[in-house]
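thread from #wetlab-drylab

HS: before we spend reagent money on co-crystallization trials with nicotinamide-adenine-dinucleotide, can we at least see a predicted complex? here's what I'd submit
DV: go for it
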Amino acid sequence: MADYNVIVIGAGPAGYVAAIRCAQLGMKTACIDKWMSPDGKPSLGGTCLNVGCIPSKALLDSSHHYYFMQKQASTHGIQCEGLSIDVAAMQARKNEVVKTLTKGIAGLFKKNKVTFLEGTAHLAANKQVEVTAHDGSQQTVSADNILIATGSVSSQIPVAPTDDKLIVDSTGALAFDSVPKRLGVIGTGAIGLELGSVWNRLGSQVTILEALPDFIATADRKIAAAAQREMKKQGLNIHLGANVTSATVSNDEVTVTYQDKKGEQQLVVDKLIVAVGRKPNTEGLGAAGIGIQIDERGFIEVDKYRQTSIQDIYAVGDVIGGPMLAHKGSEEGVMVAERLVGQKSEMSYETVPWVIYTHPEIAWVGKTEEQLKAAGVEYKVGQFPFAAIGRARAHGDISGMVRIIADAKTDSLLGVHIFGISASELIAEAVVAMEFESSAEDLARTIHAHPTLAEAVHEAALGVEGRMIHA
Ligand code: FAD
Ligand code: NAD
């Protein structure tokens, strides 16, 4: 008999959620993870809690408070003199937020009776897993089912190798101990924009170099254009179509060479963040060794229900590709856990929300106009600006808009795109509506409290039929 019904490898948002759900469903569950906090203790939560979603949002919030006090507080009649930043205190607060949440997962494991095994997991034949702990001790455990959730790590580019001092990845950029005077960022993905915003708000002169000609190529074009204008106003210097060819360090500065329409250009900065995507993490796991199929980009191949090429071995989260988002991995983990006990759970990939936590935020779910055009789908659009929303005026945050796209014939919601204050929260309504296969009219006939930002969603839904009230 195996030691466990399920062994989950990785305690990031995909793995820890799966482990808790497995245990809730009565399966004897263990979760293995190797992550150590800077003070040498096991730290659950993976990339997301330790060096991803959570610390980045903590710094985004702190830096936004500073930006608000500096640039906007006076419009509310609040004067502040002698404003200053204590980066060490800001970082200490961020670290405390991380510590509290990672400890919280340890508590949830205890409560749900998930056995945590500290160490690096290596897959062996016959659903055995060898675990090597930090102190070098080893044990082998077995399970009826194995769930791989080993996540991802930052991608590197040979032209700008990180040195963890002047050229850093997102983890390094979350830990700066002072505000760099001149900061370069490669990539206008979520990481480049979020971390570029943090340091820009705190006073860095930020230049972002992006190889693609389009700003946030995956977003709705009108939303992306509005966001780009706003980021420019905030002082982010964004160069599109800039292909970095080298980054060299000398005299405590980084010289970045790139090619754009005008030819070869140079940028000299004090720090450079390389934010060019993430790659699946299967190093040392031994997946290929037991016959698990891995694709040419390193992602573990899985079927619709996340089973790998080996029966009873599953994989979820960043390590299988698709949207590299915490909530996508968590829901996949839940689906696998529930299907293991015979439930018929499914995953709604069509309604995975995307959020970029700039200020204001960018959020969307479903298709963009561009995707629908390419697919030959006829659609109609309702658009409403936050400038016409009372609550946004009261906040003093009126940039952006909501755009709702519905099928021209059936009126069913095909996509909702938001650039504006609290977009990350507002998108939830759109996700629920799309999950329930609502029409734009359903949203338009739903009562929204006044005064709220959600009224912008309501008005955009009315706008699909051209019957907005406040525009
Ligand atoms: P991970 O979180 O990477 O966890 C994998 C775990 O597996 C790790 O704990 C690792 O230690 C462990 N592991 C790996 N190999 C082994 C092994 N052999 N043995 C034992 N343990 C092992 N996503 C969002 O949705 N929203 C955001 O706001 C957001 N912000 C982000 C900000 C930054 C700066 C970064 C870098 C990422 C951000 N992401 C965000 C992406 C998000 O962090 C990932 O999508 C998510 O963490 C993936 O979850 P996962 O469980 O698949 O993998
Ligand atoms: P990304 O793939 O989203 O963006 C990377 C960008 O770098 C792309 O626009 C790409 O064109 C550009 N790029 C690549 N090589 C380049 C080069 N040589 N020169 C110039 N530009 C180059 O990756 P990311 O921003 O690093 O984020 C990694 C993952 O983490 C993403 O999958 C993202 O979904 C996830 N993440 C999500 C959030 C969020 O949900 N808010 C936040 C941070 C990270």
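DV: The domain at 4-154+279-347 is CATH 3.50.50.60 (FAD/NAD(P)-binding domain).
HS: ok that's useful, forwarding to the group
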